[in-house]
Design a protein that fits this description.
Layout (H helix, E strand, L loop, with lengths): L13 E4 L7 H7 L5 E4 L5 H11 L3 E5 L8 H13 L4 E6 L1 H14 L3 E5 L10 E6 L2 E6 L7 E4 L9 H20 L5 H23 L4 H20 L4 H13 L3 H16 L4 H11 L4 H11 L15 H11 L10 H13 L5
Parallel strand pairs: 1-8, 2-3, 2-4, 4-5, 5-8
Antiparallel strand pairs: 6-7
Helix pairs in contact: 3-4, 5-6, 5-7, 5-9, 5-10, 6-7, 6-10, 8-9, 8-12, 9-11, 9-13, 10-11, 12-13
Bound molecules: nicotinamide-adenine-dinucleotide (NAD).
The site of nicotinamide-adenine-dinucleotide (NAD) has 29 residues, from α4, β6, α5 and α9.
Length: about 350
């Protein structure tokens, strides 16, 4: 990337990072001027949310453990109602993108501040991007009100994230970095973060997957996720995220797994149109070629490699290619039907990009 003219518009969050940093949650909540927090989680992470509520003591107004993937509007409405009923003045979101997404749905309407405690590598905590699903269609937007005011990254909370989700979640984070490197509105600062994010995640994720209890690797992966989330929040998305949103919404495929399968093929698709981004990505992966390096990393993480194994029907490729080319995100290479069809066909079979 050249250092021409650019806009660096990064809304800042306060970040508290490190193993054991959850002990500071009450102090951080007070710092936001809040006294009645609604603590959010998925049903599976209720235990972690209750632990946070215990640490908050009288600063916790209640636990709401109903977050689910993709923030259905009904879930958002019920959570907003619960926040009102509790007279909450802050949302504490303990979990991955689904839980932080629910906090954002509350903040979008109420402007309540969010204190996020991420437990996956999805990166939502660093972005002003929200998504709400209504009648099967996920609408996303950007609004500064939904950007968490404070983020506590405590890698100890990620020790319980399974090897499978850890691997695909790390690939999801790497996808944010790769797309930020070729975004039309990227800049040299975001590129630094993206490259360092890829380096940290590619180094740590294989260790996390083979030794989920390795705290040093967990810390490095969470650091990478922070950088990846920042990159996602600061630059636009391209063909990769467009395809993942289309496939997730249309075929109800799992979020992080779709990112894992599509990324090597999206990188191959953009290889010639974004040579500098590919050079940086390959370097950060320690590979000769970005697309192949990403694919090889997915193999090492024992992650899914094909849309077929995620349950996508073969005859869905045509529909997905049509949908993705009808209203494409801006991308280095022109997004045309034939190229996208071939990309999806390769991803459906899970072949190593040539
Ligand atoms: P998730 O939040 O849905 O979590 C997946 C599962 O893992 C859940 O059952 C959760 O309870 C469990 N889990 C999470 N952390 C755990 C831990 N440490 N220990 C044990 N179990 C744990 O998954 P995700 O991939 O983080 O989030 C996906 C969602 O986030 C999607 O809806 C996606 O669109 C959204 N997202 C949004 C942004 C944004 O900027 N707005 C960015 C990335 C992802």
């Amino acid at each position: 990337m050249t250092t021409g003219s650019f806009v660096f518009d990064q809304p800042a969050s306060r970040v508290v990072f490190g193993a054991g940093s959850l002990v500071r949650v009450a102090e951080e909540l007070r710092r936001l001027g809040a006294t009645r927090a609604i603590v959010l989680s998925t049903p599976e992470q209720r235990g972690q949310a209750e632990d946070v509520a215990r640490r908050l003591g009288e600063l916790a107004a209640g636990v709401y453990a109903e977050a689910v993937m993709h923030v259905p509007i009904e879930t958002a409405r019920a959570a907003r109602e619960e926040a009102r009923r509790l007279h909450a003045d802050c949302c504490v979101a303990v979990g991955g993108g689904s839980t932080i997404g629910l906090g954002k749905a509350i903040a979008l309407e109420s402007s309540l501040p969010i204190l996020a405690i991420p437990t996956t590598y999805a990166g939502s905590e660093m972005t002003p991007i929200y998504g709400i699903t209504e009648a099967g269609v996920k609408k996303t937007g950007r609004d500064r009100r939904v950007l968490p005011k404070t983020v506590i990254y405590d890698p100890e909370l990620t020790l319980t994230l399974s090897a499978g989700i850890s691997g695909t979640s790390a690939m999801n984070a790497i996808a944010h970095c790769v797309e930020a490197l070729y975004a039309h509105d990227g800049n040299p600062i975001v590129s630094l973060m993206a490259a360092e994010g890829i380096r940290a995640l590619a180094r740590s994720a294989p260790v996390v997957v083979s030794e989920p209890g390795n705290l040093a690797a967990r810390s490095e992966a969470l650091y990478g996720a922070w950088l990846a989330g920042t990159a996602l929040g600061s630059a636009s998305m391209g063909i990769h995220h467009k395809l993942c949103h289309t496939l997730g919404g249309t075929f109800n495929l799992p979020h992080a797994e779709v990112h894992t399968v599509i990324l090597p093929h999206a990188a191959a698709f953009n290889r010639d149109a974004a040579p500098e981004a590919m050079r940086i990505t390959a370097g950060a992966l320690g590979a000769r070629d970005a697309a192949q390096g990403i694919y090889d990393l997915a193999v090492r993480l024992r992650a899914p490699l094909s849309l077929r194994e995620l349950g996508m029907p073969r005859d869905g490729i045509e529909r997905a290619a049509k949908l993705a080319t009808e209203s494409p995100y801006r991308n280095p290479r022109a997004v045309e039907y034939d190229g996208v069809f071939n990309l999806l066909d390769d991803a459906w079979h899970g072949i190593r990009p040539s």
